[in-house]
């Protein structure tokens, strides 16, 4: 699905030198590379504060801890997402409230969100799924009307631009009260291990989050609140500094591959190409097709035999997962998410796809669609 090796080989000298520099410096934790990366990411995103942390899941957890949410508070997110979002809500003793997504962008359905707000609702976590921003004009309006915090899950959309109705633009993750991202290797801005970051324009929230990620400690060995240990290490920060300089060019490579896929699949009746939102650029964390009239897992197997990887993100929505089995929800409650989980398939998407590979992938997808017709 990704080709991290070829991407690395193009920047190998720079990366190797940066990693060795950190090793020789012995400043492995909270070294100068972490601070430098933090500042460079702040300036790339146009956000006041970046708080680096250990991974994207921690970023979400720290955000919710810093907002001082209490057990019983309700946090709304989508059922068609990666589990991390729902997991941290549950871990903190908060109540996850699930809502459906829109059939075209796979992002939160603002109407479904509005209907799910109760007096206990404290926050909403829009997930910018697959690389494209949620309709943030609407989400922020709903949040203002109902006094909710907005925590953007930008793990799949870092670098994408949200275009406001007034013509201005902001980067994914910098619009709500807090934004979260992941630097997992296969993410658009990936390091060579685990990493994550939290964004905010709010000074007080930034300060609280810096305390939370550091054991709730402001003055050394004085702990005013319960915190966690969540750090980005210096080697990862040094690698991310280099990769950040390539991020826009990486997004362009992904968009180019997506355009090729679009061209090859747009007229094929059994396939629906990903919708392009009018208010967001798409950085194509995933290229996800909706299929019709095909045995989708058969297609996946067919492609596998041709050495074309294909994945189903996500085969089971959160309200149908064993771990989140909840008497409030049953099959049928979220028809859009359920239909998507039964029809989507994602193709290889990364920065190193060349025309020959794309041609091979597309030819096999189209042959597979015929071979696996139902
Ligand atoms: C990857 C991802 C996360 C979690 O990031 P980790 O760094 O793996 O903890 C959270 N939310 C979404 C939508 C993701 O894709």
Could you please describe the fold and organization of this structure?
The chain is an alpha/beta fold and 374 residues long. It folds into two domains: 233 residues, 3-Layer(aba) Sandwich (Aspartate Aminotransferase, domain 2), CATH 3.40.640; 125 residues, Aspartate Aminotransferase, domain 1 (Alpha-Beta Complex), CATH 3.90.1150.10. The chain contains twelve helices and 14 strands. The strands form four sheets. It has a seven-stranded mixed beta sheet, sandwiched between helices. The chain has a three-stranded antiparallel beta sheet with strand order 12-13-14. It has a two-stranded antiparallel sheet with strand order 6-7. Strand 2, helix 5 and strand 3 form a beta-alpha-beta unit. Helix 2 packs antiparallel against helix 9 and helix 3 runs parallel beside helix 9. The site of pyridoxal-5'-phosphate (PLP) has 15 residues, from helix 4 and helix 5.
